[in-house]
Amino acid sequence: MTRIGIYGGTFSPPHNGHVAAARAFMEQMWLDFLYVIPTALPPHKEMEVQVDAAQRLEMCRLAFSGMEGVYVSDLELRRGGRSYTVDTLRELWGEDRRLFFLCGTDMMLTLDTWREPEEIFRLCYPVYIRRENDRTLDAAIVQKITEYNQKYGKVVRRIVAEPLEISSNQVRTALQDGKDVSRLIPASVEKYIRDNHLYV
Question: Is the entire prediction scored with pTM above 0.90?
Fold first, then answer.
């Protein structure tokens, strides 16, 4: 059984928190390989800055290059339109594959509101990683995991890692303000952003 990780997002731009999450996901879920999949159009939020899909894809390739077993996929970009997780899972699922889907705390807490949640839980094992230190969410997380287990028969697993509190919005704002972002994003991504005059 091949263990495949799926890590989606707008990645505009990909930052060090994304890279650290991918690395922890690979290690803790014992993945054979991991697909990093930039979304075409996210169903749950508006794209705040219009950087084209090809540029987001290239930034992901730069950010995750050198990580063994990590592949940046244009699957959702080729499909176009709103990127629904259930469609991606259907495309990647197979009898000889076990799919693990990584999401942040906020997304994990709302999985049952996504398109075809029963099918999402049937096709994959959801995994979440905390990107914040908000202890007030602890009770809600426990309650939701219990609900999902009772409703869908799957235990949502957690990646144990020190939260890196970085957001793409934070990076974009820092770039617009002319601030140093060298500790927020990989050097190769910063060079690409500056060479192509993005987020200014």
Answer: yes
